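Moderator note: this is an archived Q&A kept for reference. The question asked for a predicted structure of one protein chain; the sequence and the answer are reproduced below.
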Amino acid sequence: MIRGFLSDVLAKWKRFRWQGLVKVWAVFMAIALVLLVESLGVHYGVTRFDITYLDRNKAIPAANAIAGEKATNLLVVDSSQEGVSDAEAMLDQILLDMKVPTTTVDVADENAEFPALTHYSTIVVAMPNLDRLGEHVLQIMQWAKKGGGVMFAMTPEKTGYLDVIGPQIGIESSAYEYVVTEGITPSKDFMLGGGQTYTVSNPFKSSLSVSLNDRAQVKAVSSNGRTPLIWSAFVNSGSAVVCNIGIYGKVFRGFYASAFSLLGSATAYPVINGAAFYLDDFPSPIPSGNGKYIKRDYNMSIAEFYSQVWWPDLVRLAERYGIRFTGVMIENYGDDTKDDPVRQTDGAQFEYYGGLLLRQNGEIGYHGYNHQPLALPNTDYGKEYAYAQWPNRKAIVDSLNELIAFQKDVLPAATSSVYVPPSNILSQEGRKIIGEDVSQIRAIASTYMPSDSSLTYVQEFGVAADGVVEAPRIVSGGMVGDMYMRLAAVSELNMHYVSTHFMHPDDLLDEDRGAKEGWKKYYQGLENYLDWLESSAPSIRMRTGTECAAAIQRFSGLTVSMETSDDSWDLKLGNLTDQGWLMFRANNGTPGRVRGGSLTKLTGNLYLLKATSATVHIERKTGGEA
């Protein structure tokens, strides 16, 4: 019966004289449907993640990962000397992240026993006045001559013991005066981003005036080219490294980590290998009306500018550099924290912009039900912010659950896991609530660099005790003329091989964030940063927030130990899951064939190691720097 009906319809269709027009009409309808779907931002799929989270119980905090391992490094400090506490805190974090098991001895402690040096392969000395070490200075140098590696991490003072060991560590002569370090220029074959000068904020007389002998191999100099800031030297069978920077803030960690990697015949340390780009407050309710400088430059409303200029420009950048943006959603901009959350009724703009983001294989995370930080009444904003507090724990949980439910309603294909605190503010109570009550949030992306505000949630890269991934953002905005952020960026490329950046759609509404200069200049600054990143780290993986957090999980737990022979370097990796990434510097010898992984040359004798096995064998050929 059905077959007969279909045959009858087919016969009538063949006799229909206007079938050509019907075909044309059908094509136009199909095109119109495609355009309609595109305009609604609906034709997207689930974000395709190249790397996914480990189970919470398999993600290991760095301190737990190296706990109990035999110390291979000795950190020698003198807490009675000025500046040592800052240097020690910086070095502690560097050595933890590099997974270097370390024993610390404080010579200011009269009860401390100076350990036997034969137990260690490296020693880091963190004190400016070496006379406090007394005869131990000479013991350290004798130990280095037999194959050890010693790093003098703090700008030395001109003292008797410095004069004694100076020729051995590359110093021809030194003065009693210090010079201002306005910027640092690492050599091109020493660090990623090398060959360029990076300006120091608030410079002061931090570096000792020295001249070096032929033993010294200079790795970084001051911006004027006259003051050596990092150098290494042969010490018979061993090596010495001197850091003459004299600044011990977080922004310089990568320089000290790179200096430490000059010790020994080779050094390997875990890294993240990821670059993430965040769009805060996106998608979110779009401001109505006009922006002063948007109207000036484009004669458009804010909404028109976002859809016709801002987003198309970001798509061009994404296509050119391989970026996959992570937008973090705000449901509304109200300040009501006391009543039950009210569902946003206008979901169209969220569907449209969220759909565009997902179509780009980007990701959508969480920024807030509204733009009020997760803080209880005991948080005092003072005159810094006009934010409201949440009355209790339940109100915070309800607000986050409402955001999660709303996002699932308007963008059912979105898979979200990353939370960005509004204005990078997150109270201790709010942080605890996330870990205990909101399992949908797997990672927090606040800020990496210190802030003048005590309210800012400043993070380290790693896994917290509650299993939440700490995945901070390092730099932001167009970075036009901001030398501090560029210094931070190069430091973190070499410390963690990571780049995390964020910007806001409404930056062009705020003079403090570049509105007056205009989008064109902002865009050029962002483009300049991306050009720099691409040339400095061409092999870095462009990732979403979730993927970067998953990479941080692997980095956090990964440990490494190495045995060296005349013809090989053999690495043993702890807590390796599917793959691990490490910086590998070959100081004495050249890498050849690799088993259990692969090497990519980055610059000079610095390589990126992709490890696929818990044991990695690297052939060692003769030659190379010591």
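Archived answer notes: Confidence is low (pLDDT under 50) at residues 21-42.
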